[in-house]
Automatic annotation (TrEMBL):
PANTHER family: UPF0210 PROTEIN MJ1665 (PTHR37560:SF1), UPF0210 PROTEIN SPR0218 (PTHR37560). It holds the Pfam family DUF711. The lineage of its organism: unclassified sequences, metagenomes, organismal metagenomes. InterPro entries: UPF0210. This is Protein containing DUF711. It comes from gut metagenome. SUPFAM superfamilies: PFL-like glycyl radical enzymes.
């Protein structure tokens, strides 16, 4: 029997102080697994089923060490077990579980945030989002050339990052905790207008998923990083654009329109901040298929020296064409088809 090491009294206190999620139920196994790390990984389904706010992440590969394929196989099984353990909540536990390659030590964004081994005992790392701000700015230069477009993205990223820097410094001062980094990641929310997909369409796409989508995303990511790095003394984490399906209304619309597929999303992960994120798949998807998705993303990250990740939700009891509602910051998603082969 796997014992879950989480104690519920301190878990309950998170709600009292207004914490949405807490990360760090994590393992770094890119080169190998200790018995303790394997036990922790095998306890993930129960940990996520018995808690509301705890998030988990596992790093299975890196550019330096390669990919731990034993961990990849195990994580496919763990994702499916987590789905089954939380099937009464539409497999919600999988929305709090991320499998990484090249996981950064200073990522402040849930569900993949954890306190890295290279960090000080306490540090404040701040995540700054704002896709809605970028989209509004681009509306002002609609129809202009690429140079004008890129300059507007950089200027907007600079302003947003600068605000994040000031907030982080003030929090550091009040709490007496050192400031770490600002992570400027365009992370969408379910709110209307707060969409990365809509930014890409403002750049010129008819619909996200159309030919040219990967190029538009690369342009956005590049300009966000160039603008943000000038605005802070320390930019870190992921710092780019996220493409989660359930948390982005524009992505959801593109899936429903038949413009955006799992394969196209995988291609987009070559140039975005993370990977296959918040994607609902059929509940009868095999563990070996999920392991294959993880292996593909890990290969992209390892070869291209970038962070990649997989956060897929096999929704037990539901299939392609149905919709699953996660609620809150996690949004809702149409269940997307995945290859029947593994």
């Amino acid at each position: 029997r796997i014992t879950c090491p989480l104690q519920k009294p301190w878990i309950a206190q998170q709600k009292t102080v207004g914490v949405n999620f807490i990360g760090g139920y994590s393992a770094l196994v890119s080169k190998g697994m200790t018995p303790a790390e394997e036990l922790l990984i095998r306890s993930i389904p129960r940990a996520l089923a018995e808690t509301e706010r705890v998030c988990s992440s596992v790093n299975v590969g890196s550019t330096k060490t390669g990919i731990n394929m034993d961990a990849v196989k195990l994580m496919g099984e763990i994702v499916l077990e987590t789905a089954k353990a939380t099937k009464e909540q539409d497999s919600l536990g999988c929305a709090k579980l991320v499998v990484f390659c090249n996981a950064p030590d200073d990522n402040p964004f849930m569900a993949g945030a954890f306190h890295g081994v290279t960090e000080a005992d306490a540090v404040i790392n701040v995540g700054v989002s704002g896709p809605g701000v970028v989209k509004t700015a681009l509306e002002k230069v609609r129809g202009k050339d690429f140079e004008t477009l890129c300059e507007m993205i950089k200027r907007t990223a600079f302003k947003v990052t600068r605000v994040g820097q000031l907030v982080a410094q003030e929090a550091s001062k009040r709490l007496g905790v050192p400031f770490g980094i600002v992570d400027l990641s365009l992370a969408p929310t379910p709110a209307i207008g707060d969409s990365v997909a809509e930014i890409l369409e403002e750049i010129g796409l008819e619909r996200v998923g159309a030919p040219g989508t990967t190029a538009a995303l690369a342009l956005l990511n590049d300009q966000v990083k160039k603008g943000g790095v000038m605005a802070s003394t320390a930019v870190g984490g992921l710092s780019g654009a996220f493409i989660p399906v359930s948390e982005d209304q524009g992505m959801i619309d593109a899936v429903n329109a038949g413009a955006l597929t799992l394969e196209k999303l995988e291609a987009m992960t070559c140039v975005c901040s993370v990977g296959l994120d918040m994607i609902a798949i059929p509940g009868d998807t095999k563990a070996s298929t999920i392991s294959g998705l993880i292996a593909d993303e890990a290969a992209i990250g390892m070869i291209n020296q970038k962070t990649t990740a997989v956060r897929v939700i096999p929704v037990i009891g539901k299939g392609v064409g149905e919709t699953v509602e996660f609620g809150g910051l996690l949004g809702y998603a149409p269940i997307m088809p995945v290859s029947a082969f593994s």
